[in-house]
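Ops channel
N.P.: pipeline sanity check, posting one input/output pair.
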């Protein structure tokens, strides 16, 4: 079984082909990276996979089920979770409550029991808070378990978003530039977190510009340029691909 399959996927905005006739598959239990210059279509691809955008054409399958027309909340229930390229933190809430937002899907929120604060609900809530605090420690945020989100530095907030995505108990986690704006030390910490997540059996699809990180942790790399597949394979294969190197040098110039 492939965990995720993208089949002839296209997305147009006006005349712009953000994603064009793209096909690939992600095997379960792997770290699958997607690279490409700015504007290559990586975030659009994430938005298509997670149901934020509707494809112009093509199909998306998750665990062999066609999910092409599904909404983001349905996909979250099916076991898909993501982070965003730009921070999506609720700064008026505690760090722990930010993680609880991700967990919310799995809580029993039937109206009458929660109205009367029945013991079963109170217990479920306490359990969820303990789980979410544990997730914060898992991503290395031990010292921020009691903190307000607004007190946390940027690097810690990037990890908080990973904890929140994990709180939904996904089988597939999509990370859009988790190391963007981080220094070398913080990047290495994110690298460790991603490896730890993958070691728990969660499949990771990673969009990242930090090539050192991508080459070091990926099982498989897909390189995009102008919405199309430029190359794919192992890090060694993709790193040796002349077109990939040219696309990156072209983007730098
Ligand atoms: N909502 C949108 N409306 C119009 N154009 C968009 C939209 N989202 C992305 N694009 C365009 O699609 C292309 C791919 O963008 P994006 O997916 O953000 O690339 P990447 O994440 O690889 O940098 C760009 O040309 C971008 O301007
Ligand atoms: Mg992007």
């Amino acid at each position: 079984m492939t965990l995720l399959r993208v089949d002839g996927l296209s997305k147009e905005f006006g005349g712009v082909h953000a994603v064009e006739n793209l096909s690939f598959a992600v095997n379960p239990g792997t770290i699958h990276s997607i690279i490409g210059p700015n504007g290559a279509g990586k975030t659009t691809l994430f938005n298509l996979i997670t149901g934020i955008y509707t494809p112009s054409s093509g199909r998306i399958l998750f665990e062999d089920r066609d999910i092409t027309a599904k909404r983001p909340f349905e996909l979250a229930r099916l076991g898909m979770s993501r982070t965003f390229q730009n921070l999506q933190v609720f700064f008026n809430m505690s760090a722990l409550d930010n993680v609880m937002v991700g967990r919310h899907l799995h809580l029993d929120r039937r109206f009458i029991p929660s109205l009367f604060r029945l013991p079963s609900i109170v217990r479920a809530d306490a359990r969820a808070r303990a789980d979410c605090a544990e997730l914060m420690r898992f991503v290395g945020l031990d010292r921020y378990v009691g903190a307000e989100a607004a007190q946390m530095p940027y690097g810690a907030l990037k990890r908080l978003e990973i904890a929140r995505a994990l709180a939904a108990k996904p089988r597939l986690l999509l990370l859009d530039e988790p190391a963007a704006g981080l220094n070398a030390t913080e990047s290495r910490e994110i690298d460790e977190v991603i490896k730890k997540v993958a070691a728990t059996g969660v499949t990771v699809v990673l969009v990242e510009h930090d090539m050192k990180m991508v080459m070091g942790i990926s099982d498989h790399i897909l390189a995009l340029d102008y919405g199309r597949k430029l190359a794919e394979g192992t890090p060694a294969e993709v790193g040796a691909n002349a077109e990939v190197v040219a696309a990156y040098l072209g983007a730098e110039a």
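N.P.: looks fine end to end. Residues 42-43, 85 surround magnesium ion (ligand 2) (CB under 6 Å).
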